[in-house]
Specification:
Helices cover 23% and strands 10% of the residues. It is globular and about 40 Å long. α3 packs across α5. It starts with 23 loop residues before the first strand and ends in a 44-residue tail after the last helix. It has a domain at 41-58 and 67-228: Lysozyme-like. The chain is α/β, with parallel strands linked by helices. The chain has helices at 86-103, 128-134, 166-183, 204-208, 210-223, and strands at 24-25, 63-64, 70-75, 113-115, 121-123, 137-138, 150-155, 190-192. The chain has a five-stranded mixed sheet with strand order 5-4-7-3-8, with helices on both faces. It has a three-stranded mixed sheet with strand order 1-2-6, covered by helices on one side. Bound molecules: zinc ion (ZN). Residues 74, 193, 201, 256-257 line the site of zinc ion.
Length: 267
């Protein structure tokens, strides 16, 4: 079973405390108004890196004080397996990490969170979960030139012409609502990888579901009484560029478009 959040989270207030070992860049920690609010949306039950037996990162993961301004939805470009089990989900996380470290040469898994077709939610890059809890940002490698302002969710499967499982979508909505509250973001902040980079990711069908995902996420936030900002903070450099989707994108498991560019300070 995945880890469950503590029993008293409704009474926990978000603070500015950073755990030891976190490298804070960009000056003083800023606390958004959302962080003065009591937490209303419980952290989803999820599997930590320890649960899926992650390898340690090969280098230090960067933690930024400034929270992300966008939540990026990806697909993994892997087969749409019928195995919805916990075991398959944990194996997926290990496979992604191995590919990203051994083939791509990154310090760790690129994405902050992973959701399997069975609806199992996994922590990705090292320190991703503590960063969300703190309202800080664990910098990943998942969307070229925007890694320092985005958090990425890898959704298992290939969604060019079929929808994800209901289990995956339900878990994704739960995750999106949790992240929106944690970072003080409006559901408008939910975008697809192809909004930033020339790629099919997260697939034509899943990309077409983004309005529904934003709407369902808003529904969760409103039902829980979360104060939703009117729109998400977007710096000009962080605005989606909506490039063309390439016709000849490589057909390869785990390849879902450009994930690191010259503007990224991270690996
Ligand atoms: Zn992607």
């Amino acid at each position: 079973m995945p880890h469950s959040p503590g029993p008293d989270r409704r009474t926990v207030f978000r603070g500015a405390a950073l755990t030891s070992g976190a490298a804070v860049l960009g000056g003083a920690l800023t606390v958004s108004p959302a962080h003065a609010e009591p937490i209303r949306i419980a952290e989803p039950a999820l599997y930590t890196r320890g649960d899926w037996n992650a390898r340690p990162p090969s280098g230090p993961v960067q933690i930024l004080a400034e929270p992300p301004t966008r939540i990026v939805v990806h697909h993994t470009a892997t087969p749409n397996t019928d195995d919805l089990s916990e075991g398959a989900a944990l194996a997926l996380s290990r496979s992604i990490q191995d590919f990203h470290m051994d083939t791509q040469g990154w310090i760790d898994a690129g994405q902050q969170l992973t959701i399997s077709r069975g609806g199992h939610i996994m922590e990705g890059r090292n320190r991703a979960l503590p960063a969300i809890r703190e309202g800080t940002q664990c910098v990943g490698t998942h969307v070229a030139n925007h890694n320092n302002t985005t958090i990425g969710i890898e959704n298992e499967g290939t969604y060019t012409d079929v929808e994800p499982t209901g289990e995956l979508i339900d878990a994704l909505v739960e995750t999106l609502a949790w992240l929106c509250e944690a970072y003080g973001l409006s559901p408008d902040a939910i975008v697809g990888h192809r909004d930033f980079n020339a790629t099919e990711c997260p697939g034509e069908v899943l990309y077409g579901m983004l309005p529904e995902l934003r709407s369902r996420t808003m529904g969760v936030l409103e039902a829980k009484g979360v104060r939703v900002p009117p729109s998400s903070r977007v710096e000009p450099a962080d605005a989606p560029s909506y490039p063309q989707v390439p016709d000849d994108e490589p057909d390869q498991a785990f390849y879902h478009g450009p994930v690191r560019g010259p503007d990224d300070i991270s690996r």
